[in-house]
Amino acid sequence: MSPSVNGNEIQDADKPVKSGDLPPAVEDRPPKVLISGAGLSGLFLANLLEVAGIPYAIFERAKEVLPLGSIICLTANILPAFEQLGIYDELMKFAYPCLASTFYSSKLEVIGSFRTDDDEKLIGYHRTLFPRPELYQLLLSRIPTEKVHMSKKLMSFVQNKDGVMVRLQDGSTVHGDILVGADGAHSAVRHNMFEDLLKRGLLPKADQRKMMKGFICMVGTTDELDPAKFPGVDNPYSVADLILGDSESPYSWSIYNTPGNRICWNVIVQLDVDASEDEQFRNSEWSATTNESLIKEVYEFKTPFGKLGDLIDKTPRDRISKVFLEDILYQTWSHGRAVIIGDAAHKLLPSTGQGAVNGLQDAVILANCLYDLRPLSYEGIQETLKDFQAQRFSHVKTQYEASQFNAKLRYGHTFLERTLRHVVFNYMPKSIQMKQLLKDSAYRPQIAFLPEFPKKGSSAVLPQKPSKRYMEEQKKKAQAQTQQ
To answer: Which parts of this chain are annotated as the region Disordered (predicted)?
Structure first.
């Protein structure tokens, strides 16, 4: 007998699919969701579907989830959803509020700073830093093990009005109603989806371009450090220090103290705009030799904790990674029964710390839309996935543009970028900065099929689309209680 995944039978590739195996055109049941990718977006979506009672299964190409040993920033834009799920307090056990950001020259001269001590009073939450592995493990621990399938790389999928069939690398297939591509910037779901749209002449030209690659980043997290040798590493909060290379240098480097007396550091190199993509690729291969070469170049760079090399020496080499910082916003997020979320749909530069937040917001809104998908039909699925993008696109576009602007401030080394940085740090009124902060914090999508979490802070919050199904269910419960 073939193994079953939430009612979806995994079949051998050569086993014929009988028409009787596929669901009828319209049914009064929740959709069976196949999630490709066990990253943050995929795991968070699985957590939401588990609560919503929507059947799902995750297929991850890796043998095990091994996230990079870096940090991730979550904000008021997503933390209310963690409160609704009842895991906020657990989340805070391995979190640090980030209370300040300081910008230095390569000689450690202060060139700008921002304090965020009042964020909790105004917004309700601090910008909060989490070690990425701990956040992964928290989300993964809440998912039944039988619903997560490792070493299951998606190769292709086919779909029609009756269902979607996913073909995996091991030759097996799995059937469902909806396929979610949460499989990252180089998404196999997006690749297959766009390939089919291109053949049909339906793929916009904007979605046929390649991701922009303007920077390379090397990142790592140290082992536990001795506060006597690294004063301040044991502070119960985080300070983000960004150091900018001089006019002859394409480098920027950052450090953040994190829970466990550790420091997360990164080095960002701005690529020559005239360099070819092949040259850029050769300069960014993920190999120990290339990392060691770059380590030698940056070893003597100064930080408030001493030389950058001192931190690198305290970092296991297997926790040092080097990647392109790519960015793109795709126009097409769904096709038939397939939809993409997170980095698969929009890859943001990390300059605003909103990349992960946007992926988690995608999961919330998609789960809300799927919860209201009744009855189940092919037409209803298409409308639901389009509604998901309609609710999310403008918000993502705003953050995408902000990440590009902030990248110029944080990583840019051209004359115009340095001039822009000088103007912002020295002449932009604090009132304008605060106004922008409050505007950015107003969008806080919550889980529509759970009780709304009370607003924190004094600043305004944007309303969101309610769940018709949830409202009807609450009305019926209230009527039943009245009749008792």
So the answer is: 1-25, 456-484
